[in-house]
Structures are given as C-alpha cells and as structure tokens.
Amino acid sequence: MRRDSRRREKEEKNYNVLYIGGSILLIGIIAFVITFVAYGNKMDKQASLDNQKIASLVQGSNKDSEEVSTSMGKTVEEMQNETKTMENTNKNTNTTKANTSTNTKTTKTNTNTVKKQETTKSSETKKTETKQEENKQEPLTFTKPVEGELAKEYAKDKLVYSETLEEWATHLGWDIKADKTTVVKAAANGKVKSIKNDPRYGLSIIIEHQDGYETLYASLLSTEFVTVGEEVKQGQSIGTVGNSAAFEVADAPHLHFEVIQNGESVDPSTFIK
C-alpha cells in the first residue's frame, strides 16, 4: 500500500512537474509567438515607414535633382549667353579697335598724303620758281648784226629812192653795207623761227625773241650756221652777207635788217645805238 501510495505520490509529483514544465513551456511558446508577431508587425510598420521615407527621400532627391538640373540648365544657358555676350563684346571691342586702328592708319595715311602733296606742291613750286628764275630773261637788248656803213635807214613814215625799183618807197629796216661772205650774227638771244628764200627779200632768217619781238636778216648768201627751231645766243653766227633780195638787187652787197614787234616793224635805232 505504501509502495502504491509512494508511487502515486511520485507519479503525481512527476505529473505536476510535467504539467508545470509544460505550462511554462507553453507560456514561453505563446510569449515567443506573441513577441515574434508583435516584432514582425513592428518590423513591417518600420519597413513601411522606411519605405515611405525612402520614397519621400527619392522624390525629394528627384525634385532636388530636377531643381539642380533646372538650376544647372539655367546656369549653363546664362553662362552661354554671358559667353556669347562677352564674345560679342570682345568682337565689338576688337572691331572698334580695328576700326580705330584703321581710322588712325587712314588718318595717318591721309596726313602723310597731304604732307606728300604739300611737299610735292612745295617741290613743284620750288621747281617752277627755279625754272622761272632760270627762264627769267634779262631785259632785251640788240646789237648790230654786222659791222658796216648804214646805206639806208629806217623810213616808214617817209619815202626813200630805190635804185632797183627806180621809184620812191618806204623802207622798213636798215641796209648795212658789207662784203659778200661777211658773217652775220644774231642781234639778240632767241630761237630761229624760219629760214626761207623769199621772192622779195631773198634768202632770209627770222629769229623770234622775248616780249613779241622778231628780227629779220635778209639778202643773205648762206644760212649754213643755224637750223629752224635752234636756240641762238646774241652774237652767234647765223649766215653770210649776199645780194639775193630781189627788190634791192641793184644795190651793193649788204644786209637788210629789220626789227619787228608784235607783227609791226619798228626803227632799229630805238634799240641799237
């Protein structure tokens, strides 16, 4: 009986231990499950919150990116515009400088041209003055073209007798006696205007001088010393005395000499003493 009682007590104890242990284990399992479920819910909520935060951050990042992109885009455009503006400004500045330089060069060129023109004009003026000085002729003077006796004087306003014509007529020059082949000289500086064999005056030379004066040398034997257009000096040989004048052929050999001013004969004694 005692053994049975002890055995039953022992079984009851073991049962109680098992019951208590099972209860504790069950409570532990329940607590674990509750804790796990609660923790899972919490984790889900946290994950949801995290996802929301992440999404919010992503959206904020996108907005920031868009703002940054927009800002950067605007900055780039502004930078491009500023760059273009600066390039245009530089181009305008360079153009202005180039134009200024060109204008300066043009002004210098024009100034140099004006100076050259002035120098040229001054040089030309000096040359002209020099030529005028060189060409400036001394007062016109005449010398006797040949030495000899004056056979006939100038007679424009009175008549003289002509042995050849056997009549009284005017005489517009001098007849200077001289032997044939006597050298005839230019009465003044001038240029040979003509050399011709005139029907009345015979072999003749006309020399033109300054101030509209001319001299005529007629009744010559030769004109071998000069040519038409030649410049001659006073006292230069131009021909030789002859007797070729038809209207004075009856006279002794002589030089018929005339002084003409602006187409009108004048008295040689006015110039030759």
At a glance:
The protein is built from one helix and 13 strands, in the order αβββββββββββββ. It has 273 residues and is of the alpha+beta class.
Topology:
Layout: H1 2-135, E1 150-152, E2 155-162, E3 167-171, E4 174-177, E5 183-185, E6 190-198, E7 202-208, E8 213-218, E9 220-222, E10 231-232, E11 237-241, E12 254-261, E13 264-266
Q: How would you characterize this protein structure?
A:
This protein is an alpha+beta fold and 273 residues long. The chain has 2 domains: 136 residues; 121 residues, Glucose Permease (Domain IIA), CATH 2.70.70.10. 49% of the residues lie in helices and 24% in strands. The protein contains 1 helix and 13 strands; from the N terminus they run αβββββββββββββ. A hairpin with a 2-residue loop joins strand 12 and strand 13.
**Number of helical segments with 4 or more residues:** 1
What is the oligomer described by this structure?
single chain
Mean pLDDT: 76
Contiguous low-pLDDT stretches (5 residues minimum) are 61-76
Morphology: rod-shaped
Alpha-carbon Rg, integer: 71 Å
- Class computed from helices, strands and strand pairing: alpha+beta
Label this structure with key terms.
single chain; 273 residues; alpha+beta; Glucose Permease (Domain IIA); 2 domains; eight-stranded antiparallel sheet; three-stranded antiparallel sheet; 13 strands; 24% strand
